[in-house]
Amino acid sequence: MAQEYRYLQLEAWLLQCLKEQRWRPGERLPSIRSLCREHGVSKATAQHALQRLEAQGLVEARPKAGHFVSQQIPRAQPPLSRTRIEAPRPVTVSDLLLDIMRRSAAFDILPESHSGELPPGIVALNRSIGRSLRRQKGEDYQYYDEPAGDGGLREQLALHLSRRGLQVGPEHLCITSGCQHALFLALMACCKRGDVVAVESPGFYGVMQLIEQLELRVVEVPASSETGMDIDALEEVLRRWQVRACIVSPAFATPGGALMGDSSKRRLLALAEQYDLAVIEDDIYADTAFGAVPDPLKALDTEDRVILCSSFSKCLSRDLRLGWISGGRWHARILHLKLMTQLASSRFLQRGVAEFMADGGLTAHLRRLRIELRERRDHLLALLQAWPGEVRVSAPQGGLAVWVELADTVDTLAIYPEALSAGVVITPGPLFSVSGKFKNCLRLSFAHAWTNAREAALKQLPELLYQPIQSCNFRQSPP
Ligand SMILES: Cc1ncc(COP(=O)(O)O)c(C=O)c1O
User: Fold this and answer.
1) What's the domain range around 159?
2) Candidate of 107, 314, 322, 400 to mutate for ligand 1, largest count of ligand atoms within 8 Å of Cβ
3) Strand blocks (E) in 296-448
4) Which of 117, 210, 396, 473 has the greatest number of C-beta atoms within 10 Å?
C-alpha cells in the first residue's frame, strides 16, 4: 500500500540506481527539475524522495549545487529490537507472568488475525486529531501544556461524567497517560512504603504490579464475577489489619465483568469512613455498558475520599494513552505527582479528542460499540456452550471479557506456552492474584470481532485444557 505514494516510487527508483552505481560516490544526482520532468512528479514529491535518501545518509544536499551521492555509504543498521534475537535465558514464573501481561493487554486471543479495518468512530477521531495537529499554532511545540491537562478536554470529561451523576468541575480533573498512570498517581498520593492496600481477588494484575513497585503490601479480598468485591470480607479484613487504601472496579471489573450494586457501594463508603480509607475507583470499563451506564462510586462520595481513575483505552483507543483522574482530597498532591512523572500531556492530542467529544463523536462511537460488544459477548457464550467438561462462565453486562472456571484438575498457566506456540494468547487465572490462585480459571475476551480464525483458535483450546476430554457440563452464571 505504501508503494502507492509517488515519493516512495521515486525513492525506490533512486535507490535501485544507487545500488547499480549509476552515479558514483561524490557524483551529482539528476536535478530536481529533471526528476520532475522524467518521472512526471511535482517538485515537492521529488524533494520528499531526495530528503528521505538524505535521512538514510545515502545522498548529501549541497546548497545551490544539488544532491550528491554520499562519499561514505553507511553500514546497514542493526535490526530494530522488535526483530532482535535475544540470548537464551531461563524463564521464571514472574517472567512468564510479565509475558502474559504484555500480550493479554490487547485482549486478543489471536493477535495475528486482526483485519486492520478502522471503525467509523476511530476514523472520525483520527480526523479530529489530524485537524488539531494542523492547527497547532506559533510556538506551541516549544512549550509544555499545564500539568492538569487541556482545559477543553477536562471540560468535555466533566460533562461526560455529569451524565452519570458525578458533578466534578474541570478543575477537579487531571489528564494522565492512561488509567495505569492514573492508578499509579493515586497509589503514590495516598500511600507510603509498607502500607496495606486491599484489592479484589481475582483482580486487575496491573494494580498488583504497581503495588509491588511502590513496595506496598496487598491483601486480597474475594470478589464474585457477578457483584464484585465481597463487602463482608472487606469488613473482616479492615477489622484485622490496618489498611490504607482499597482499589475497586465497581463497573464491570476485570476479569469477569462484575457490577457492584448500590447497597454494596454505600457500605463500602461507610467502611471507608469508619476505617479512614482512601478508595481508588478504577472506572475504565464503565462506558462499555451494554445497557445504562452505571453511576460511578464517586458520585456517592460525600467525603472526597474516592479517587476516580479511568481512560479511553477500553471504550475508544488504547493507543491514545490518555486517561484522567479526579483525586478528591488528594488532588493537589496528584497534580504535583503528574508534573513529576510526566511533566505534561500532548496538547494537540488532547485538543483533537476534546473536539471529537464536542462533535458528538464519542457518543456515536459508544452507541455502536455497545451493540457490537453485546453481540460479541453473546457469540462467545454460545461458542463456550460447546466446550467439554465442567465450565462456569460469567455473563457480564459490560466490559470486554468473561471469566471461565473449569474443573479443578485444569491448569491454565501450564498450557499457556503450548497455546502460545499455536499463536493463541490465553489469559490464565493466576495472573489475577498475587497468591497463585485461580489455576483452573481463565479470562476470555470478546473485545475483538469473531473471525473464523478467532473461532478456530477458541475451539482448539479445550483440547489443550482437557486431557482426556470430558463430557459437557456448561453452566452460565445468571446475568
Ligand atoms: C481494570 C484496568 N485498569 C486499568 C488498565 C490500564 O489502562 P490504560 O491502558 O488506560 O493504562 C487496564 C488495562 O488493561 C485494566 O484492565
Assistant:
1) 121-362
2) 314
3) 306-311, 323-326, 389-393, 401-406, 427-428, 441-445
4) 396
